[in-house]
């Protein structure tokens, strides 16, 4: 194989793995997570101020986002930190879902 052919093949392979695009994806994903948690917190506080009880479902959604983010990163990167945080977020998500369902079944205040 000639040098030009090798370079052309390398360019074609690397075109799909643009580091700039990967960095933008990482930043947007991180920012999206912050927005989800911030919005959930605002809605949670508004519900408390209006004396409508707790809505654990809001935080279940926020923590589900975090769990998914960490576990997908672990799947591709195989870093223990990602697995640890992914499992923690997943456990918290499950607890919040259970609390939300229990609250719905008991008939306490929620909107």
Rg of Cα set: 21 Å
The secondary-structure element order is HHHH
Counting DSSP H or I runs of 4 or more residues, the number of helices is 4
Low-pLDDT stretches are none
Quote the beta fraction. Answer: under 5%
Shape: elongated
Q: Biggest sheet: strands, sense, closure?
A: none
* Derived structural class: mainly alpha
For the record, give the distance between the C-alpha atoms at the N and C termini, rounded to a whole number.
68 Å
DSSP summary, beta strand count? 0
The overall pLDDT, averaged over residues, is: 83
The percent range for helix content is over 70%
Would you spell out the secondary-structure blueprint of this structure?
Elements: H1 3-15, H2 19-49, H3 56-77, H4 80-106
Helix pairs in contact: 2-3, 3-4
Describe this structure in words.
The chain has 111 residues and is mainly α. Helix content is 84%, strand content 0%. The protein has helices at residues 3-15, 19-49, 56-77, 80-106. The longest helix has 31 residues, at 19-49. It is elongated, with a radius of gyration of 21 Å. The termini are far apart. The model has no long low-confidence stretch (mean pLDDT 83).
């Amino acid at each position: 194989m000639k040098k030009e052919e090798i370079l052309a093949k390398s360019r074609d392979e690397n075109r799909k793995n643009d580091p700039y695009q990967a960095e933008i994806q990482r930043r947007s994903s991180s920012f999206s997570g912050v927005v989800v948690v911030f919005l959930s917190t605002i809605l949670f506080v508004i519900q408390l101020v209006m004396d409508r009880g707790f809505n654990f479902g809001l935080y279940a959604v926020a923590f589900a986002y975090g769990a998914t983010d960490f576990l997908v990163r672990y799947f591709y990167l195989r870093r223990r930190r990602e697995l640890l945080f992914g499992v923690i977020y997943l456990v918290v998500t499950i607890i919040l879902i259970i609390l939300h369902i229990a609250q719905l079944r008991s008939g306490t205040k929620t909107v």
